[in-house]
Amino acid sequence: MRLTGIIVDEILHGADGTDIRCGVVGEIGCSWPMTASERRVLQAAAHAQAQIGCPIIIHPGRHSDAPFQIVRILQEAGADVSKTVMSHLDRSIFDTKKLLEFAKLGCYLEYDLFGTEFIYYQLEPDIDMPSDNDRIARIRMLVNEGYEDRILMAHDVHTKNRLMKYGGHGYSHILKNIVPKMLVRGISQERIDKILIENPKRWLTFK
Ligand SMILES: [Zn+2]
After folding, report:
1. From ligand 1's centre to the CA of 16, what distance in Å?
2. Residue 175 and which of 107, 111, 184, 196 are 20 to 30 A apart at CA?
3. 148 CA to middle of ligand 1, Å?
4. What pairs with residue 111 in β-bridges?
5. Residue-range definition of the domain harbouring residue 13
6. Checking DSSP bridges between strand 108-111 and strand 84-86, what pairing results, if any?
7. Structural domain tally of the chain?
8. Which residues, including other chains, have CB under 8 Å from residue 169's CB and lie 6 or more apart?
9. What is the pTM of this model?
C-alpha cells in the first residue's frame, strides 16, 4: 500500500521533505462510526508496524465500542497491539466490566485528559466528562487488577487556554497535582514511576 510506504519513509528517512524522522505513528484520529479512509490509515499503520516495529497511538471515536473495533482492525492487519496506545480512555469506556474486557486485549491504556474538567462536553454532549479524581480512581482500579505495566497518563494539551500563560494547568499538572493525590489514594511511588517513566519508555522503543 502506498500509504504504508509514506509512513515507513517518514520514520526511516524524514517527514515532509526534511531529515527529521518520526518517532511514533499517530495520534491516528478515528470517528464513530469509522470512515473508510480512517480504516485504511489504521491498516497502513499496522503494516508499517509489522515491518519496522514502530510505536502507534490511536485517538478512538467517541463510543465505548470504538476502541474494540480499532484493535480488531489493527490485529487483522498484522499490528503488534502491545506496541499500541489507545488514548482518551477517560471519555471512551465508563463501564468497569467493559474496560477490563478491553484491557485484556493488551494495548496501552491511556488516561490523558488530566486537567480537563467540565460539565458540558461539546464534542459529545452525551458523555459525562470525568474529573481528575475520577481518573485517578480508574487508574487505581486498573492497577489493582494487575495492569500497572499497561497504563499511561498525559494532559492532551491542545488549546491555548490549557497553557499556564493563559491560565491553564500547563504541562506540570500531573507531576505537581496528580501524583500527590495518587499517593493519597494508595498508589505506591514505585507504581507511579512505572506509569510515568517505564511504560512510556517501553512503548517508545522500537521493537
Ligand atoms: Zn486525540
Report:
1. 22
2. 107
3. 22
4. 153
5. 2-204
6. parallel
7. 1
8. 114, 115, 155, 162, 177
9. 0.96
